[in-house]
Amino acid sequence: MITSPFIRKPTSVQQVMLTVLLALLPGVAAYVWQFGAGILVQIAIASLTAVVVEALFVHLRDKPVGLFVGDLSAVVTAWLIALAFPPLAPWWLTALAVALAIGVVKHLYGGLGQNPFNPAMAAYCLMIVSYPALMSQWPAAGHLDFQSQLQLILGGARDLDAITGATPLDALRTALREAAQPDSALHGLAATHLMEGPAYGWLGGRGWEWVALGYLAGGLFLLQRRIITWHIPVAFLATLAATALLLWGMRPEQFGSPLFHLASGGTLLGAFFILTDPVSGATTPRGKLLFAGGAAFITLMIRSFGAYPDGVAFATLLMNLCVPLIDMATQPPVFGHKKD
Amino acid sequence: MLAKLFQFHGGVKPATHKEASTREAIAQVPLPGRLVVPLHQSIGGTPRPQVLPGQRVLKGERIGAADGNVSAAVHAPTSGTVVAVEPAVMAHTSGLTTLSVIIEPDGEDAWIRCAPVDYRAMPPDELRDTLRDAGIVGLGGAVFPSHLKLKPGKGGRTRSLILNGAECEPFITCDDLLMRERAPAIIRGAEIMAHILQADEILVGIEDNKPEAIAAMEAAARGKAQIQVVAIPTRYPAGGAKQLIKVLTGIEVPHGQRSTDYGVQCFNVGTVYAIFEAIDLGRPLISRIVTVAGNVARPRNFEVLFGTPMDHLAAQAGPQPGTDRYIMGGPMMGYPMPAFDVPVVKATNCVLVASPALFPPPPPEMPCIRCGECAQACPADLAPFELYWFSRAHNFGKAQEYHLFDCIECGCCAYVCPSHIPLVDYYRFAKTEIWAREREKDAADQARERFEFRNLRQDLEKKEKAEKLAAKAAETKAKLAQEAQSGGDGGADDPKKALIAAALERARAQKAQAEPKNTDNLAPATQAEIAAIEARRTVLSPHADSPGSAGFAQPARSPGDEQWTANAPLSPPDEAESGLVRPGSARSPEDA
Fold it and tell me: Which of A29, B47, B86, B169 is in Cβ range 3.0-4.6 Å of B330 for a Cys bridge?
């Protein structure tokens, strides 16, 4: 017997995921424009792996394969991994990361809706710990034609030093370390001066600021479509900027500017697409603020004092751990109980 | 106009589908062949039947009298003959039956003598009794007896009387049409109620998608300073009493509390109209406006006598092929009916003719992705997905902690869920389970109390008996001592004692005789042999005091202490039992 309500809004998990994929397109377009079509190859490898692994696990778990693969949640994970990874990473690294994300982080924890950790970020952390060298080879903007990119991704030759370098976050960090040494040539130069090199653009890293703007556009689209609420992006970006401002204001020669932090690394991808993952994130309005604020603070601490250039992935996982507590502690008052 | 409207959280805006049934005026329904009038049509006690089969009744004659004050009377919807008073399938999803009066109309539709009431001359208590006996209940769907709500709050006054004309459910337009066509009567009813409630103001809340109804009500209220007609934003469930009170006054009435205590009282406009008819015309509630919509050619509103079979009603609107069931109420909160011929009752605001094309079965259910759409849509500010997890996990304590019982089952959460989870079903399940467990717990508590009382009583009895016995023993001892002292010249006692001793002796002898030995019927030779063996045995075992008694004989027992020894082995298990049956052990662990 079907009971009320008898009508339903025409919406589905598939539609939600499709909207997220659509929202990623501006960022992907900027990526291709600035760094070449190699990223599309990565996205294709990741998506294919995701669909195969998802189908395998859904089948093993005796669920309708078409329905669950068709919800596109695995494809969203795949795209996020492809976009978070270095675009010239070897194909097997991307595939392995996606397989771990879908198979282990998602399905071993119960599948769609059950995973306590963000699959894409868990895979990123696993890979950066396991393959630190491969995970830190980033190309400079507009450097390489598609043919060479394809060879690097699919082929074995990995003589990349000529064409890749550190990310702006990494470069700045190395430069700042250098500047801190009294016998260095860079000694005494402030971050603002250090950032005048060719690796930096008008906001953050050269080329990367366009990709970041693409993510921002996609994020605003998600907000407009009510797929996400304002809480997480606003809290994340505001906390990141405020913490960066505090450090930068005290020691401009040692820390990056707020604007640099906002436009670099995984900041905007994280703010709009990663931390907003509803499954592993906080769900109450106040909880979302706490969750994203905490993630921003941890991100900046890792960037400024930690061993890794970017901290969004680790920050996400650490805050994922806190979600049950945060949600429990921030339940909004219900109708008629608001005064007590 | 009001200075400020308030907003309730959440809500949804489904397609209203109201236009189709508002094109034509309210129509009358031809008398059906028979009317099945259930006696239980409101919250509270089941009215007692007042008629017998074969009896002739007039239109408006009381056929069921209110059972106590939390109940409302039921009346004959037309004149005719009572053919039966028997259980019939009721207008409820369960398909259960309820005692109903079945009337065969005589076609004359002859009224009883209606006695209008001068409400200003009648004391409020009598007015409330009049309404109870006129069968007035909330016609918005909750069918709560109205006279119980018509009591002023603190200080004998009510700040706001709210008329609910919001009608937020899709498809339903019965209140809309009623307001359009009978606005002056509704206003008149509201004035009667304001008098009973001693209300300062009357607010009429109507969703702004009913401009005609708003205009009609405004026209009827013109010149009456006490009454304000307020257009409120169209957003389901604005017609929920608590949501409407919030929108109009900003007051949030918590679950389980009466709005009267907050100086507000809210009535559906249909109820207000019924009160007008009961007081000003002296007519009891025997019919209501019902919307027939959905899979019909001409959706329309009808004035329907209670007891009219739904299929008879739907036939007036031109039913289309493909109908698979009727839904009583709207698509958000309505109930599927167990049959097509169930009767229209006081709670029936709409008969929604459903077909698979109109209300297709929901797409397959997916796992919850915690997207929070439901929390954003919930008008009670709940976290529906958390309630879902807890209900699913049978973690009912936690579900209650997250305010499960504040859920009004409006269906907004299930409406917006991208995973197509039938969320409301989970809450209904959890609520039913909790109620069942509470009943179980009550029963267990009662059983425990009874058990503990029994133990206490038995202990007391034991103690009393022991005391009596001790007293008797002491008495006997004293007597013996006295006898010993007085040197055996007991007088009356001695013959008695001798008699008892003689009787005991006789009994012993009889017993010995009566008990046959298994050696009695043997041949003399064998008997002699046995005797010889016995003699030898006696010599061999000097401790054996009697033949054959060594290890097998029953311990001797005197008739006097038989009762106590019989009782003694019983008491330890009793105690063990009382130790095992802890108060909570009959309950399930979740209740702890």
Answer: B169
